[in-house]
Write a structure and sequence with these properties.
The chain has 106 residues and is α+β, with helices and mostly antiparallel strands. Helix content is 33%, strand content 31%. The protein has one domain: Mago nashi protein, CATH 3.30.1560.10. A 4-stranded antiparallel beta sheet has the order 2-1-3-4. The mean pLDDT is 89.
Length: 106
Amino acid sequence: MHIDFECSGGYANLRLAYRGDTQELPQELTDELEGLLEASGFFELEESAVAPTAPGPPDVFSYRLSLREGSRQKSLSFTDVTAPASLHPLLSRLRKLAVDQKMKGT
């Protein structure tokens, strides 16, 4: 599964990105991400249900997440406010991966 994740905003106006492919990750991390993805119901979400309609409070994070797995492909944009609770664990893990990737300079 190819992952393209961007996160921006918050009080510090952070800009983070994570790009990766589960075929290149350790199996334990691949299993974790696939479990979080399955639990989130990402591929079943409709854009209209999560798309931001107005800017949120100044500390809100905005996200763009694109996933491609075989013939399945989806890209959604949302904020902390508009993202369903089921997505929050996946977003949190991807944010951590983005920070780790930025710290390594890759």
